[in-house]
Write a structure and sequence with these properties.
Distance between the termini: 31 Å
Organism: Rhizobium leguminosarum
Family: Belongs to the ABC transporter superfamily.
Number of helices: 6
Protein name: Heme exporter protein A
Domain ABC transporter: 3-210
Largest sheet: 5 strands, parallel
Bound molecules: adenosine-5'-triphosphate
Number of strands: 9
Keywords: ATP-binding, Cytochrome c-type biogenesis, Membrane, Nucleotide-binding, Translocase, Transport
Length: 214
């Protein structure tokens, strides 16, 4: 899998948030976005995930085999600021929903209990999601990435609300995903403890001097 962004620009409301963003990630590579609040990290992630239309530029997810272009939803997981889980459903019901909804176009994901165990929360999958603490909820949101396989993980502040042990656990899961040829694009204010990652500092309006077509 290859992920290529070419000359991207995006607008929110009236304002251009960024222009001329390009990068290329091959299997096993990661890019970490940094920058102050409001600098456009979430906007860029949403553009890459196909949830927001760019003002200009292209995003290409391309399979290594056959060089076939893939739809972002088929090639990537998107973990946003919100956890995308229903409070009234149990943890197992939430994860089962995501597994069925996402399906598995290629490699199958982990069974639910194994995914919960991988984020350090086995034995609580019978509880309503809403009963969990903020950190436990974030861990389960991350387990969604494990129940259905996607080669590209797009992560917006994945470690928000997590304690130090969960920080390490998620960093290990991200490192394992990269080691298996996955691609990771993450926005974060905290270091994820990953080695050999590319970094891009978003500058927000300050970087937009020449207009979108400049
Ligand atoms: N729907 C919207 N309409 C208008 N402006 C928006 C909208 N969503 C975001 N913005 C603006 O776009 C800019 C970039 O926001 P974005 O959420 O991408 O920043 P960020 O770098 O992810 O910030 P943070 O670190 O706080 O998560 C901000 O100035 C924000 O106010």
């Amino acid at each position: 899998m290859h992920l290529t962004a070419e000359n991207l620009a995006a607008r929110r409301g009236e304002d251009l948030i960024f222009v001329n963003i390009s990068f290329h990630l091959a299997a096993g590579e990661a890019l970490v976005l940094t920058g102050r609040n409001g600098s456009g990290k979430s906007t860029l992630l949403r553009v890459i995930a196909g949830l927001l239309k760019p003002e200009k530029g292209t995003v290409i997810f391309r399979d290594g085999e056959g060089w076939k272009d893939r739809h972002p939803g088929e090639a990537s997981h998107y973990l946003g600021h919100r956890n995308a889980m229903k409070n009234e459903l149990t943890v197992a019901e939430n994860l089962e929903f995501w597994r069925a909804f996402l399906g598995h176009p290629g490699t199958a994901g982990l069974p639910l209990e194994e995914a919960a165990e991988a984020v350090g929360l086995s034995g609580i999958t019978h509880l309503p999601f809403g009963y969990l603490s903020a950190g436990q909820q974030r861990r389960i949101a991350f387990a969604k990435l494990l129940v259905a396989h996607r080669p590209v993980w797009i992560l917006d502040e994945p470690t928000a609300a997590l304690d130090a042990s969960a920080d390490r656990l998620l960093a290990e899961l991200i490192a394992a995903h990269l080691a298996q040829g996955g691609i990771v694009l993450a926005a974060t204010h905290q270091p994820l403890g990953l080695e050999n990652v590319q970094q891009m500092k978003m500058t927000g309006f300050a970087g937009v001097d020449h207009g979108v077509w400049g």
